[in-house]
Design brief:
By secondary structure, this protein is mainly beta. The chain is built from 2 helices and 3 strands, in the order H-E-E-H-E. The chain has one domain. Strands 2-1-3 form a 3-stranded antiparallel sheet.
Amino acid sequence: MIALENGLEIEQIFERDLVSMDEEGREIRREWVPVREDEGPENWQRWCVIAVLKRRESKL
């Protein structure tokens, strides 16, 4: 992964539903997994993967 090769690490990674919101108008999130066996192409454009990155702490 390019980010890891450049001194970053993943702090958090999740998927956000780009189509729907919950009853209170908040975004819907779910845990990220590389492959979802039960989902087809119709869902691929619905979910956006979001990763929060941080600089890896250097060891002195």
